[in-house]
């Protein structure tokens, strides 16, 4: 079953009048930036954890054998690291299309590493966007034992490629950012050992 979020997202008018704004990527947006952006910077958000809890029937699986892709789940005190992109409002149409199966736009504070500006260190945070798949979308799968999730990922494949490629691309991209994510590395390790 699909849950097409394009109409809902198109009604969200935050940033419509802005020249540019920041989008935080925590999944495929980290390693697959196939959209125009003005700049990008490693960034993080608080109180959210990355989880392979969203079903994918359109990219990394099929309706009969859905794959698992990431969404964010609220977790007080958690920190999720990723990559932020400064984009123009026009780019959202393209992203709404790419992430149409269950992902809604949501506003969050995005944090950047402190920078040296005019001789002094300034910490930066801005309000920006994430794409979020919540439990009420039809493709949501939710939690399962890690071994079950790993098996599902190991065998699923869809129009965008295999589900394991998605997971291992994410693992590599996080390593390149110097980010430790227990959930991702545990799943990747299990998938690599699944025959
Ligand atoms: C992301 O990488 O931020 C992302 C993941 C899944 C859907 C939309 C965005």
Using brief descriptors, characterize the structure shown.
195 residues, alpha+beta, five-stranded antiparallel β-sheet, 39% strand
Distance between the termini: 29 Å
Helicity level, as a percent range? Answer: 25-40%
Q: Number of helical segments?
A: 6
SSE class: alpha+beta
Contiguous low-pLDDT stretches (5 residues minimum) are none
> What order do the strands of the largest sheet run in, or round the barrel if closed?
1-3-2-4-5
Average per-residue pLDDT, rounded, comes to: 91
**Main sheet specs:** 5 strands, antiparallel
Distinct ligands, ions and cofactors found in the model: benzoic acid
What's the total number of strands? 7
What overall geometry do the principal axes of the alpha carbons give? globular
Overview of this protein structure:
With 195 residues, this protein is of the alpha+beta class. The protein is built from six helices and seven strands; from the N terminus they run H-E-H-E-E-H-E-E-H-E-E-H-H. The chain has helices spanning 6-10, 28-31, 91-98, 146-155, 163-177, 182-192, and strands spanning 21-25, 39-56, 67-87, 103-117, 120-133, 157-158, 161-162. The strands form two sheets. It has a five-stranded antiparallel β-sheet with strand order 1-3-2-4-5. A hairpin with a 2-residue loop joins strand 4 (103-117) and strand 5 (120-133). Helix 4 crosses helix 6 (182-192) and helix 5 packs across helix 6. The longest helix has 15 residues, at 163-177. It starts with 5 loop residues before the first helix and ends with a helix. The structure holds benzoic acid.
């Amino acid at each position: 079953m699909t849950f097409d979020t394009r109409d809902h997202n198109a009604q969200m008018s935050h940033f419509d009048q802005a020249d540019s704004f920041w989008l935080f990527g925590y999944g495929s947006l980290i390693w697959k930036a196939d959209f125009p952006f003005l700049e990008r910077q490693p960034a993080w958000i608080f109180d959210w954890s990355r989880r392979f809890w969203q079903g994918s029937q359109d990219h990394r699986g099929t309706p009969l054998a859905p794959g698992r892709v990431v969404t964010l789940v609220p977790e007080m005190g958690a920190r999720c690291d990723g990559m932020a992109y400064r984009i123009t409002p026009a780019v959202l149409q393209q992203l709404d299309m790419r992430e149409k199966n269950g992902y809604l736009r949501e506003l969050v504070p995005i944090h950047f590493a402190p920078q040296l500006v005019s001789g002094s260190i300034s910490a930066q945070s801005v309000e920006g966007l994430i794409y979020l798949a919540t439990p009420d979308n039809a493709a949501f799968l939710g939690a399962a034992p890690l071994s079950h999730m790993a098996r599902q990922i190991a065998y699923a494949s869809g129009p965008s490629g295999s589900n394991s490629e998605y997971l291992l691309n994410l693992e590599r991209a996080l390593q390149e950012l110097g980010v430790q994510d227990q959930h991702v590395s545990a799943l990747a390790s299990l998938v690599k050992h699944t025959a």
